[in-house]
Write a structure and sequence with these properties.
The chain is an alpha/beta fold. It has a single domain, classed as Decaprenyl diphosphate synthase-like (Undecaprenyl pyrophosphate synthetase), CATH 3.40.1180. 45% of the residues lie in helices and 15% in strands. It is built from 7 helices and 6 strands; from the N terminus they run βααβαβαβααββα. A 6-stranded parallel beta sheet has the order 3-4-2-1-5-6, sandwiched between helices. α2 (25-46) runs parallel beside α3 (65-89). The chain starts with 5 loop residues before the first strand and ends in a 7-residue tail after the last helix.
Amino acid sequence: MDVPRHVAIILDGNGRWAKAKGRPRNYGHVQGSKNVETICEEAWKMGIKYLTVYAFSTENWNRPKEEVNAIMTILRDYMKTCLKTAEKNDMKVRVIGDITRLDRDIQDRIVQLEEDSKDHGGLNFTIAINYGSRDEITRAVRKLAGDCKDGVVDPEAISEETISSYLDTHGIPDPDLLIRTSGEMRLSNFLLWQLAYTEFYFTEVPWPDFTKEELERAIRQYNARDRRYGE
């Protein structure tokens, strides 16, 4: 089986999964964060080199304040867990998105996590936090425009590679396969530039129930497709 080099996942359905079980939405987010660690390990065992997950979008701030606060608490705890997991599994962790809106202690933990894992040689794990692709592109354009104004970049020499180098994902190959859980069939402002030639896989399975077997099913379907570039 041809294993995709880079898999991106939109982690959807935590709240609905919890509600179906008669539990609060926050319970679903807790279980969803635990499943991230499991899938990271399984992805690396399968031969996946890069895994990117959509954890918290720029639009998620519009959720009820109580839910947002609970997610931030879970994020704090997850940063601690991820630091241990990264060390244990030789995993390199990177966070994309505008982290400046996050509380200072979370920003500090992100910086520590990236610094401590930067030389690891295992799975390249990227977490999108306070991420929105339009926001990412807007920030990239502002920086590129500033560099053009300062004479650092020649506007006539700007290429696709130039633009990619200004994105949060610079240095990371574009995803080969995108998975979205819980039945929704939209991108929700995720990696719009990077997904130009990516294969999509949508499943009704909510994220907390997404298992190694579900990941294998997605990869089998990826293998069954006739990938023709430029058409």
